[in-house]
């Protein structure tokens, strides 16, 4: 599978980015900005929302300036929010819109830099969407809330994350001959709710390949799509009681240790 491909569900990534961003902005409006974020050690809510907002503007700037290497985030225009709360919330929401505006300005198929090689500019919408889904979940967990991420969005986030892992080579992420099967229990996801991951390549090209569909794995992990997604990103523990693990749990533990977000 390739992250250049269309999302694995009929997800409207543009609308989803704005919706997820609006939900994070509402948390920023109502929560204590000094709240510590356990899933991002050393961060408070202030650092989290600044990271997300500046990251959106970072991507938008690289798209519009057609850069060929990573831009220093400190050079991003408007990269710091205003001091007042209303201004901060508006800054965060404008940051997500800036990504869409940048893609529209250059065209969705225009080449754009990415950390896994050149991509169509529209690739960045989905990438920034799932940066948002992960960090909104971070904020909710820190505030003692369960993530309310929609199953289809969580499933697409898991697929997008596997694309990123597959694009990075040079490390053995699964033992030779082992496989990992993830199965979302949400009944309406169809094939988009199952993933099979296997080793692929060797040496400098060592990595993984993955595909949708039902298969028997060395280890299989079943649970709600949102819990699977957050556990795979190490936002929830592998031993979360909502997850069922079959086969060899050590393979899943090794996978998590080798693939930090």
From TrEMBL:
<feature type="domain" description="MDMPI C-terminal">
    <location>
        <begin position="153"/>
        <end position="253"/>
    </location>
</feature>
<protein>
    <recommendedName>
        <fullName>Maleylpyruvate isomerase family mycothiol-dependent enzyme</fullName>
    </recommendedName>
</protein>
<dbReference type="InterPro" id="IPR024344">
    <property type="entry name" value="MDMPI_metal-binding"/>
</dbReference>
<feature type="domain" description="Mycothiol-dependent maleylpyruvate isomerase metal-binding">
    <location>
        <begin position="16"/>
        <end position="140"/>
    </location>
</feature>
<dbReference type="InterPro" id="IPR017517">
    <property type="entry name" value="Maleyloyr_isom"/>
</dbReference>
<dbReference type="Pfam" id="PF07398">
    <property type="entry name" value="MDMPI_C"/>
</dbReference>
<dbReference type="InterPro" id="IPR010872">
    <property type="entry name" value="MDMPI_C-term_domain"/>
</dbReference>
<dbReference type="GO" id="GO:0046872">
    <property type="term" value="F:metal ion binding"/>
</dbReference>
<dbReference type="InterPro" id="IPR034660">
    <property type="entry name" value="DinB/YfiT-like"/>
</dbReference>
<dbReference type="Pfam" id="PF11716">
    <property type="entry name" value="MDMPI_N"/>
</dbReference>
<dbReference type="GO" id="GO:0005886">
    <property type="term" value="C:plasma membrane"/>
</dbReference>
């Amino acid at each position: 599978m390739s992250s250049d491909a269309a999302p694995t569900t009929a997800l409207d990534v543009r609308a989803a980015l704005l919706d997820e961003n609006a939900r994070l902005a509402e948390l920023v409006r109502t929560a204590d900005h000094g709240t510590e974020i356990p899933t991002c050690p050393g961060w408070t809510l202030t650092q989290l929302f600044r990271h997300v907002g500046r990251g959106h503007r970072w991507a938008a700037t690289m798209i519009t300036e057609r850069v060929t290497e990573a831009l220093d985030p400190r050079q991003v225009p408007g990269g710091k929010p205003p001091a007042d709360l209303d201004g901060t919330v508006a800054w965060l929401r404008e940051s997500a819109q800036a990504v869409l505006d940048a893609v529209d300005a250059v065209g969705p198929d225009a080449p754009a830099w990415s950390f896994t090689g050149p991509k169509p500019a529209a690739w960045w919408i989905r990438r920034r969407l799932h940066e948002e889904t992960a960090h909104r979940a971070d904020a909710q967990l820190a505030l003692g809330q369960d993530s309310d991420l929609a199953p289809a969005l969580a499933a697409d986030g898991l697929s997008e994350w596997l694309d990123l892992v597959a694009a990075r080579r040079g490390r053995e992420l699964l033992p030779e001959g082992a496989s990992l099967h993830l199965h979302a229990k949400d009944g309406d996801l169809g094939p988009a709710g199952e993933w099979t991951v296997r080793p692929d390549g060797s040496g400098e090209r060592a990595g993984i390949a993955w595909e949708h569909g039902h298969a028997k794995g060395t280890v299989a992990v079943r649970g709600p799509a949102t819990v699977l997604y957050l556990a795979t990103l190490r936002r929830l523990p592998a031993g979360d009681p909502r997850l069922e693990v079959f086969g060899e749990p050590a393979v899943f533990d090794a996978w998590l240790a080798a693939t930090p977000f």
